[in-house]
Amino acid sequence: MREDPDVRTTVRARREVEVVAHRGASGTAPENTLTALREAAAQGATFAEVDVVLSKDGVPVLAHDLTLERTTNVAEIFPERTTWNVAEFTLAELRMLDAGGWFDQRFAGEHIPTLREALRVFRGHGLGLWMELKSPDRHPRLVQAVADVLRTAPGGWLTAPDRARWLKVTSFNFDVLADFVREVDHAVPVGGITERVPDDATLRELAGWMQYFIPNYRRLRPGDIVRIRSAGLKTGFWTPNDPVAVASLLAQGADALIQNYPAVARAMVENRDPVPGPAPVVIERVVGDVPDGGEHVVLRNLTAEPVDVGDWYLRDDPGYRLPIGPDRVIAGGGTLAVYVGHGHHTDGRYYSGLTSTVFSKGGDSVALHRPDGELVDLAGNNLGA
Questions:
Q1: I want to staple 288 with a disulfide (CB 3.0 to 4.6 A). Which of 79, 319, 363, 370 is the partner?
Q2: What are the backbone angles phi and psi of residue 106, rounded to the nearest 5°?
Q3: pLDDT digits over 320-371, tens only?
Q4: pTM beyond 0.85, yes or no
Q5: What is the domain partition of the chain in residue ranges?
Q6: CATH class of 5-269
Q7: Cβ neighbour number for residue 117 with a 10 Å cutoff
């Protein structure tokens, strides 16, 4: 749903806001790949957030999930394995996997990059590294292995006087962040990722050694942002893809926005339309969390003429594709409800045919794309049922 211009004009440009591309520009490229990093830079991100884990032979690589099932073709390449945990595969084995085709066949052949490979792209594109130390309990040597790469890679990641400008280290595990500060580099800003904001005393304690506090923006309560800032911490939020949420967080003084579509956040930071140009079709409503599993998106044709949305598609977070089949036409002024699962198509309903009947994460955000990948509209399910 396009942002209300009245909302947008209440937000003053805050060019110091850090636009952080979530897993790279994961709305338009496969997450945690080199292409996603390059796309993040092209979309105006200040930083790209990547998830770092260890391969079986101790090499830091970029991957979010504990297993490889969602974002690679591991089941096809290693069908004999009983489990597909990242930590059970050597780097040579990881190199055999396709980490792009799941997202779109245009990206088939993308591989899982090492942290060292990714650092070359960060430096080459003037992009800051916002690194999440992922699942350190599964990767006990993670901090040391990451530090070894940062120390030996070109670019002065742990030695340059301005390294705090280029590197932030985050984690859900506050102990591993404390280890990084104590054992690796106290000058690099660190940030704790959480679901909710704790009490004031805890925030003040964390502010003694932590620079950023990064809660789930959907779990914020009234006054939480003020309490974080009053404690002396900067605020970062994951993952406000919906322009309405971005506008609200900017108005409340957000310091960093971790976004799947960094071009959207960049435009709003600079007081521009989040999705430029007139759109014939918009997302009118995202219907998530419905009891019968019939979660869907309502698209509306804003013109008086029919619009063919055949082969357009929707993406929810974190990048699952909901296809719209060929020759689907929305009448002038009419609507089309696109459902996640199976059903009988009608003039006003289309079923994507996925095995699931629900959005990922309850439909936190859903984006509408043309067949060539161009973003048409973006909305969150806070628009109501």
A1: 363
A2: -60, -25
A3: 899 999 999 999 999 999 999 899 999 999 999 888 888 886 667 899 999 9
A4: yes
A5: 5-269, 281-383
A6: alpha beta
A7: 15
